[in-house]
Amino acid sequence: MIEPLWYMDVPRRQLEPVLTAALELLGPGATRQGNHLRFCSDGLDLRLSGWSLQQSVYLKAWLWQGSPAEAHALLASLQAELEQRFPYALAPLAPLEPGADVFEALSGAYPHTVAAFRQLPQGQADLERLWWWEARWRGQAGRTAEPPAVVSKISGPMPQAPSGETPWDVVVLGGALGMVQAAALAQAGQKVVVVERLEAGKMHREWNISRSELEVLVNTGLFSADEVETLILREYRDGFHKFFDGNNPADCCAPVLHTPTVLNIAIDSQALLLACQAKLEAAGGAVIDCTDFVHASVHDDGVVLELKGRSDGQRRQLHCQLVLDAMGTASSVAWQLHGGQPFDSVCPTVGMVLEGIPPEIWDPNLGDVLFGHGDVSRQRQLIWELFPGKGDELTFYLFHYHRITEADPGSLLELYEDFFQILGEYKPIAGLSLRWKKPTFGYIPGYFHTRSGSRRVGFERILAIGDAASLQSPLIFTGFGTLVRNLPRLTTLIDQALRLEQLDGASLNQVRASQANVTVTWLFSRGMMVPPGRRIAPQAINAMLNVFFGVLATGDPAKADAFMKDRAGWLAFTSMALVAAWRTPKMLLWILDLAGPVDLARWLVSYLEFSLLSLRSLLLAGWLPPLELALRPQLEARWPALALGLNALAFDITDGIGRPRWQNLAPLPKQGR
User: Fold this and answer.
1) How is 567-591 classified by DSSP, letter by letter?
2) What is the DSSP string of 307-369?
3) pTM of the prediction?
4) Of 166, 434, 572, 623, which has the maximum CB count within 10 A?
């Protein structure tokens, strides 16, 4: 058998022009039959085959006779010439003036996206929102300019609130994940207000979670078990993970990984947010929607926030003790407080809720958790997700992991254009009368931190949560999963920090949803990103993914389930990594090539910290958390800073390594200030 010598993708879905160009560039000695080329000259016999998939043209070459060195030189020259003739660059984003038609503005660059959004019930508003996110992200990501100052520190006391206005304990900026956290804090006794730039309860993402995570909402006392059941749209019976391996070496293929209880519950996100809003308001809180955050002045004893109404432009102020930044990747607060670089990677995610796909095409009791139907396309490893929803609704997602550069910070519009053109390659939907219900999109941020505490989330009287904090898993869970999983941890520590007036930056930086076992998985997402400015073999990432997921698929199902839920401990993680390296030693070279020696060295620091924290947990977790709980009243009365630090440590050695402490906690007490 003659092994493939060379394999590449050309970033245009134009098979005929590419093959014609390749025939011309190879020159005399080249012939063509259909989608196959042959080059014979001076003892060199090369065979090339071409095909089109995922908006790319792929070429594979075999050496039948002659010198491998000469063949490689010829093919490298051919690749360079083809890339020059068929270049790819991120298209500039068309401006959208007030009152302009967004369909007309984007139809030239993104015709398939515009056509699909025209079919949506609120398509114009949805596309305008998508344009806003794209413009906001492109205007910030990868830039070196100083971000606008939206937070200022002013020495001295906070000005008096206007007559009749009582200062709030907490102002939560962002009404998606922030609404859930706000409701939990309000039920714990804090006076909380949520500020949301859109209409409250509206979401541009769907949420999936497992039942074990969902139990957190009951355990904290936020919802009853019956209330939680009303939020569930669908619970499917099995979920699949499979990456394309048609071009992989034989030792880099893998069976399907089944995880029946991973992300197997579809949540009615709007119903959840509205229910949280009702609970917030019933506990004395409030929601201010359709309002933009403008500026925060941090004083010695509080914060004054300036807001602006989106419809009338009216300005107003809020006074509070603590600000929670839950504005996600669009957070101007996060961009300023992290010096304009709060994230170094991103996962652009687009999708659509569809109706009309019959069960013979897709069983609504099954989900695709992670699925790839092709190799690297335009230097992106595209991955699908599919989750059943209410009735015959199916939610499709398409995403990829991306290193942020100024030239290409990552684009939702570009990805949507691919989504609508390659959806039929993923599932056979041609000829079906589909109903487009709702778009789902967002930028999921990533930030590599060598230690679980090195990512700063707390500043004086300001705390970042959710995507603004960028502490979530890069593999499965987005902000919703990590927030729910860490809801008792964050609520307990925020409530304690407020009651004890421990609101300085160092104290608040202990209030975090970080996990050391998640930090070490960051290398996997790095290995799924094509390094900027480089071209790699299209099958390289799929080969690496199949090696590791093959270990999960052929091992203990409980370990696979724990890994996909970010609960894998040190022994399980280390054993899986060692088995993967033992089975396919060259995977280490692939990771080194994709991640680079610097990132690999930084990851080794993360792994060392994970090992030390796991050892610390082994020594302390059995007795320190119950001791902290017993001593908490006395410590809070005499040494408030020590009380907060010890409570944060108790969570670090449990939740911080994937062993949630909430399972042993009673519902949160309503103490307040």
Assistant:
1) ---HHHHHHHHHHHHHH-THHHHHH
2) EEETTT--EEEEEEEEEEE--GGG-HHHHHHTTT-S-SEEEEEEEEEEE---TTTS-TTEEEE
3) 0.92
4) 572
- Give the CA dihedral 98, 102, 104, 105, nearest 10 degrees: 70
Q: Which two tokens stand for residue 557?
A: 């199902």
What is the end-to-end Cα distance of the chain in Å, rounded?
A: 75
SS3 content of the chain, % helix, strand, coil (to 5): 40, 20, 40
Residue 551 to residue 564: CA distance in whole angstroms: 13
Beta strands 30-33 and 36-41 are antiparallel
Cβ count within 10 A of residue 365:
13
Residue 618 tokens read as: 């082994």
Q: At what angle do helices 640-652 and 487-499 cross, to 10 degrees?
A: 170
Which residue blocks in 500-596 are alpha helix, DSSP H? 505-508, 516-519, 522-527, 540-554, 557-564, 570-583, 586-595
Q: Among 426, 345, 420, 410, which residue's Cα sits nearest to residue 378?
A: 410
Secondary structure element (H or E) that encloses residue 298, with its range: strand 291-299
Q: Which residues 6+ apart lie within 8 Å of 263 measured at CB?
A: 208, 209, 210, 239, 367, 369, 387, 476, 481
Distance (Å, rounded) from C-alpha 490 to C-alpha 220?
11
Backbone region of residue 484 per phi and psi (left: phi > 0; alpha: psi in -120 to 50; beta: other values): alpha
Q: Give the β-pairing of 345-355 and 402-403.
A: antiparallel
Query: Tokens in use for 443?
Result: 């930028």
610-646 pLDDT, tens digit per residue, is 999 999 999 999 999 999 999 999 999 999 999 999 9
Tell me: the pLDDT tens digits for 515-571? 888 778 777 777 788 888 788 889 999 999 999 999 999 999 999 999 888 888 999
CA 349 → CA 49, 297, 396, distances in Å? 32, 34, 10
Question: Which residues, other chains included, contact 604 with Cβ-Cβ below 8 Å and sequence gap of 6+?
Answer: none
Based on C-alpha coordinates, what's the Rg of the chain? 26
